[in-house]
């Protein structure tokens, strides 16, 4: 939930969720499935659920890392999070729910689980496999953690092979030690590079939040670094602080600046770019995939 003492610019206004969004939300609640839509307090959840778009979050809802921008963390709570036990039935339950919701594009992500021997790679693999068993035509996007940079775990998580493999660098290099103290900028870039090496047919994707205090030249540097790893898709969105205990918003980026960044990113060679204040890593994911795969010539 956003801090109530923050007056957001007018371009963040959202429509009231419709009937379908409420019905999908109820089905998800009854299923016991975790979603980024809810756990990360995504501002687009009403729109996405209304369009039958869901980003599933596997491996529980407790992260082993402590990023200062994230709603799924222990920031400001005063206690060390205790990760939940692994649920071996989760992959099949997610697959059945994807089928029940009649999805043709499924996004699956997770919290970071550094406490596990395989960092959760096995559950990613099994979830993709179960969805494919139920309906092989469903397109699957995995938004994965860094798996500590271990190539064997990336190979495991991406087998069966998804259609899109995403890993977010989240912010510019200079801010990592403040915002992501348990992550590494170069390691995240290495994850994207390794994905292309071991699964060259997979479309790769990353995302950055803006308004964290970064300079324009640093955003450009991050874009260039991503393209150097042959990253295909880029999402740029405005950071919104989940609470006063989290990292504060340093700046609200104007929509025109987002459009300028989009032009720069396309010029660098990204196949699909979503650059909007309300853009999030999985927002309009199917459209981005179709454009990157050459099935859609434009996307605003």
How would you describe this structure to a colleague?
By secondary structure, the protein is α/β, with parallel strands linked by helices. It has one domain (16-292): Aldolase class I (TIM Barrel). Helices cover 36% and strands 12% of the residues. It contains eleven helices and seven strands. It has helices at 19-31, 36-39, 45-50, 90-100, 121-134, 151-157, 176-179, 185-198, 216-228, 255-268, 285-292, and strands at 55-58, 105-110, 139-143, 164-166, 203-210, 233-238, 272-275. A seven-stranded parallel β-sheet has the order 1-2-3-4-5-6-7, sandwiched between helices. Strand 2, helix 5 (121-134) and strand 3 (139-143) form a beta-alpha-beta unit. Helix 4 packs parallel to helix 5 (121-134), helix 5 (121-134) packs parallel to helix 6 (151-157) and helix 9 (216-228) runs parallel beside helix 10. The two termini are 27 Å apart.
Spatial separation of the terminal alpha carbons: 27 Å
Level-1 CATH class name: Alpha Beta
CATH H level: which superfamily? Aldolase class I
Question: How are helices and strands ordered from N to C?
Answer: HHHEHEHEHEHHEHEHEH
- What is the molecular shape? globular
CATH topology: TIM Barrel
Q: Domain count, please report it.
A: 1
Strand order of the main beta sheet, please? 1-2-3-4-5-6-7
What is the annotated CATH architecture? Alpha-Beta Barrel
Number of helices: 11
Based on secondary structure, the structural category is alpha/beta
Strands, count: 7
Radius of gyration: 18 Å
The level of helicity is 25-40%
Strand content: 5-15%
Q: What ranges have pLDDT less than 50 throughout 5 or more consecutive residues? A: 1-5, 74-79
Indicate the mean pLDDT: 86
Main pleated-sheet profile:
7 strands, parallel
